[in-house]
Here is the input.
Amino acid sequence: MPKIVSLNCWGGRIYEPLMAFLKSCQADVICLQEVNRLVGPVPHHLMSAVRPDGYPEHLDLFREIKAMLCAYEAFYIPAATGYVHDEKQHANVQYGIAAFVRQSHPVIRSHA
Here is the structure.
C-alpha cells in the first residue's frame, strides 16, 4: 500500500521543519499546497525578502523541494500569479500546488 502525505507548506514559513520532514517522511506520494515558484529571473536582494508577518519569503520553494526530492517525479500547477517587489524591481511568482511521486511508482497520466 503506497504511503501518501498531504501538507500545507504555508509558502515555506516554517522552512527548516518542513524540509526536514519531507526529507525523512519516506512517502510514495507527497501532495503540497501553498507552494511558491519563480517565473523568470529575480533580483538577488528579493530572494532574501521577509514577509510582513516576519517570516522569510521562499520565492522558489518548488525548485528547492524538487532538488531535495531527486528520487521523485515533480508536478506543479499554479493557482495564482503575483509579484514580490521593491521600489525599482519585481519578481514574478506563482502560487500553487505540487505533487511528488516516487519514481518507482508509474504515473499513468497528469493534467495541468
Observations:
- Helices lie at 15-24, 44-47, 61-68.
- The first helix runs from residue 15 to 24.
- The longest strand covers residues 72-85.
